[in-house]
Amino acid sequence: MDNINIWEWVGYLASVVVAISLMMANIKKLRWWNLIGAGLFVAYGLAIDAIPVALVNFFIVLIDAYYLVKLYREPTPPEK
Question: Which residues cross the membrane (predicted)?
Answer without folding.
Answer: 6-25
